[in-house]
Amino acid sequence: MRPVIAQLIWRAVRRVLGLLFLIALVLTGTGGAIVVQGSRDEADRADTAVLMSDGDALSRAARVERATSLYLNSHISRIIVVGQAPAQAQAILLNRGVQADKLQMIRAPSQQAQLDQLHSAFATGRPIDALLIAEPVEILRLLKMAHDRGLPLRGAPTSRTSAIDLGAVVDEVGRYFTYVLASASAQR
Question: Among 21, 76, 108, 155, which has the highest number of CB atoms less than 10 A from its own CB?
């Protein structure tokens, strides 16, 4: 009788260990995808730049500088500033030479609400050709959120440094799966 119980216990332990290994593999793979997408710059000529203006002041300044440079070098023709308080970024862009009629602001409390409003801003019927200028660690999740709303944005990750912090990647893996699981349960 004992060998049968031992076999059942060993089988259960193997299943639990296999499940834990699979979960670790998925989390590690997602972290790797976040790093790869955060390192991949798809910035080229585009009609519009979507500037995510939230975050710390230094990173926001780097993103504003990137959007200004793209605009002044004629790589983009307009900028949509998105965030909880986009007025400061808009003021800096105006001071740096971006024309007021080429700027649009979207103010919303959450990134999901911001992307919903962005979808409405792009509802002109013509094809969307836009860059998403955001924090490198956030770019994968934001592109996923945009894609889920029918916005085919390309990533232009921009931060104050080129290094991606491991702690930020771990936090972003959690945010990514929170979004994916919440959107999956909302569709049911």
Answer: 76
Question: What is the torsion angle, in degrees rounded to the nearest 10, for the CA atoms of residue 140, residue 144, residue 150 and residue 151?
Answer: -20
Q: What's the fold here for domain 41-163?
A: Rossmann fold (3.40.50)
Q: CB–CB of 157/134 below 8 Å?
A: yes
Report the candidate in 58, 53, 39, 73 with the shortest Cα–Cα distance to residue 156: 39
Q: Are strands 78-83 and 154-155 parallel, antiparallel or unpaired?
A: unpaired
Residue-wise pLDDT for 109-165, tens only, equals 999 899 988 888 887 666 678 999 999 999 999 999 999 998 989 999 998 887 788
pTM over 0.85? The answer is yes
Q: Is the pLDDT of residue 58 over 60?
A: yes
Burial of 88 (0-12, 13-18, 19+ CB in 10 A): middle
Enumerate residues 6+ apart whose C-beta is below 8 A from 171. Answer: 137
Q: Residue 19 corresponds to which amino acid? A: L
Structure tokens at 67: 């959007």
Six-digit token string for 101: 């009629």
Q: Where are the domains of the chain?
A: 41-163
Q: How far apart are CA 76 and CA 130, in angstroms?
A: 8
